[in-house]
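Instructor's aside before we start: the two examples that follow are unrelated to each other. I chose them only because their records fit on one page, so don't look for a connection. First example below.
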Amino acid sequence: MAMDHDGMRSYAMTLAHRAVKDIRRDGFRQLRGYVDMGLILARGPGQKLFFSTAQRLLAKADSAYYPLVQRMLDEVAENQLCTLAVNLGVEALATGVVELRRQAAQGAHPVWMVWEKLENAEEVNAFHQAVSKAQMQGTRLFCADCEDSTLAQALLHRTSFDCRESLFFLRIKPASVTPDLIRALRAAENAVPLLMVPGEEELKGCFDAAEHLRREKLFFGLFYKLPNGAKLEAEQVHRLAELSCLCVLETQEEKSAQKALQKAVSAQRKAPDAPIFLVDWRTDSRSLEKYISAGASIHLSTPDSRL
């Protein structure tokens, strides 16, 4: 008898908690074991590629990915870590993808991620309605640019609580990290704030916000747009790693700049020299869309449709 969705989610959460406890107790031998199991159970080329890549990167005992995983285990509360893992790995990239493809096969045009800019309460309400509609078609990934802390809190109190199986990314200014926002993030568990890094010379302005989030064991990342003509240097990567274990990167429209960033991120992933995972927003979002759509009409919804 097939397991229903609630039963499958409960089982996945149990496995996630067990994995965290096993890795904490028995080190990274357990991590390699879970990756091996994931490869055996993987369905489709996308999942197989992910687990085979992870298997290769963790093959060496001195892999730099071990400190990265250890950092997440140390800095993030177990409940939130498991919730984020299940919402991304199971809800968004497994069951959600199946529904998105089914909707596309029936002639609909679903989106795999909804991204909106929220500048007032009316836009928060509209975003909530868009999320509810998109979830019915299988969408489980959402991103919101929140103009201030109050709007971010409103989104968390309403939308993320009503949509517990989805994953929300909130692009916010470091100054938006207030005690009220931290309480809302702690209660939601399915939202990841991305601190918008204003610039290399102003990077220190993010340290207080990062420290507040880290103290509460909340998972968070950075969003950094490289200045025109700038290249991603090793020193920058180390500076960003002092703040968070995740950084989403973007550069200007020119193809040469995008290729340079893609090359730098790829090199860092293959041989990381700092405990941080870098995301090349343009390249990685297109790769993810290609995997999710599998040739169907499934796209990304952004405020300015720049992708």
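Example two begins here.
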Amino acid sequence: MCFLPALWGLALCADFVIVNTVVSGRVLRALSDTGVPVLWWLHDAFAGYPHIAHQIPKTIAPNVEVYSVGKHAAAAMHAVRPEFEIKQLIYGLPDYSKEDFPVYDLGYANGRPLFVTVGSFERRKGQDIFCKAIRLLPPEVRQKASFLFVGKAADREMMDAVRNLTADYPSNVFYCKRLSRDEIKSLMQQCTCLVCASRDDPMPTFVTEGLIFGKPSIVSEHTGTAGLVTEGVDGFVYRDDDPAQLEKLLCWAIEHPAELAAMRQRLPRPLRALLFQRSVRPDADHGGKRADRKSGTVEQQITLEGQADACPFYHIAVFAKKNLSHVHKKPAGICYTVLKSR
């Protein structure tokens, strides 16, 4: 790939470069063996690799480390480069549940438990699997719940499956093309359970946002979220893209509202640590230790509930600090360019 001279010069003078997604493989090749610390962050589905695999380098240079947003994204890369060492780096998100935001009564629940899926309508997102599972529910169970599909139609087959379902069950199956950010937050606050039926999804953001609000989820094994879910504690995982398996889990969730509601109280602390992007001021007192303003290390400056290594972006800072020494004689404030201090 040919860089603009100014951009190439900026990259070579940088303290640290994040190369984003597999699509940037040629950028990575250009930056390999340059002495600039590079983190290659993968959050791609299997579906994109056939079109880009020829641009992926055969080996990883010493100045490069590879991270993925979860095990599913790592598996996608390992399908074409099984020898790559890939570490885990999930995205960090603010704790939306503690923010002040306008609350909207979206009107979909109508006094029933609300099961929600959000995402563009395409085959790999599996809306048709969710539709089939809803149809498989016994009528007396199905009528006890409401179901909402949110997303822009990118695939006619998926859209037709949802439209036909809403036509057959207009009183409790709904479709919405898009919601604003505040409406999404209200939806996460009001819904009962998130459902992700994707066939190929590295880390569906709407499920992560639901977990932030303490909402349980039912997800396909072919999602990165499946690696975060503790079965029966904060959600469920079904296998083989099987609508019948999904139907059984939906049936249990609808028929056991008290048990499902109790799950939101049991979101494990380690999972919360992964989900929330938290940072503290360099002079903040944590764990009996005080970071020094002038000489505090990156590790001291970035902590999360007393467990720095649980912070999503801690790994970026550690990698940067480890590799900065041969580029600059002093840290260049890397944590302040990556994280927002509270």
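The longest strand covers residues 38-42.
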